[in-house]
Amino acid sequence: METDWPLIAVRFALYATLSGLFGLSAFSLYGLKAGERADALALRPWLVGSGLLGLLFSGIALALLAAAMAGAPPWPIDQEAIGMLLSGSATGTAWEARMAALVVASIAALVAAGRAALLGLVAFAAAVALATLAWTGHGAMDEGAVGWVHLGADILHLLAGGAWAGALLGLVLLVARPVGRVDAAHLTLTHRALHGFGLVGTILVGTIVVTGVVNAWLLVGLANLPDLLTTRYGQLLIAKLALFGAMLALASLNRFRLTPAFERSIAVADHHGALRALRRSLAVEASCAVAILALVAWLGTLEPPASAM
User: Fold this and answer.
1) Keywords, A to Z (predicted)?
2) Contact at 8 Å (CB) between 260 and 269?
3) Over the stretch 116-149, which tens digit does the pLDDT of each residue have?
């Protein structure tokens, strides 16, 4: 099977954009106070930009998916194939729901100005948009009760992963603030956000692990575990798990070593070294998250071992 790189690239762009939109809006609600959101993270351009990019990438993805299903080239756009996809499939319904959710999220983000109610609407609409991606992957391939379990696990996996990735974006923005704009208040805010993410991060990791096990059981199965190294799907899945393990290690380092060291450095007014260490660690963790999203985009175009039996 020939690798469809344009479709993989657009899938990755969607995963990254929608994860950022959902995760960053959610992080701004639980990680920051009302008066801090707009200044600390410059939320409006990030959220509005993510919403608009999500609309753009969704349109491109629809055209590429319709062309692939019709066995036609992506250009010129096959309007008949797009019409059939929108009118006769769950994927088309999910796409329409995503577009509506992204319009709502973009408008709400434009007028939110840090207000909790509107940011909550952004987060909810972004969660809906992110969840619709489950219908473009393996989560929608089963039927009956198993199909609902698989789809539900896939949606929770997407939301937990998106919340983690978006929170990483928020934390990176906090620690990467230019030196000239870092004052005592921002340092205190940053430490509180880092410390507060500990409990949320634990819940997200637990959700990712449980739903990942369910998905692995349904997509791979015990009988196919020995063959993972010999298939492209298995190799990419192993790479994803290795990156996830690296993210767990870095998250533990941040929570139990670097964040306490940062707190001590604030107390003695010598935060530069501790802040640099946090920047490096969060940058590497965020890079792992981006790589995982790329692998997820690729994995969704491959046939899993369980369906090949």
Assistant:
1) Cell membrane, Membrane, Plasmid, Transmembrane, Transmembrane helix
2) no
3) 899 999 999 999 999 999 988 776 666 778 888 9
Q: What is the pTM of this model?
A: 0.92
Closest CA to 131 of 264, 212, 19: 19
Please state the domain extents for the chain. Answer: 1-136, 141-309
Tokens 């709400």 belong to residue: 108
> What span, in angstroms and rounded, lies between the C-alpha atoms of 198 and 222?
33
Taking Cα atoms as reference points, which of 9, 104, 95 lies closest to residue 48?
A: 104
**How far apart are alpha carbons 42 and 235 in whole angstroms?**
39
Residue type (1 letter), 52: L
Q: How far is CA 279 from CA 38, 130, 192, in A?
A: 21, 28, 16
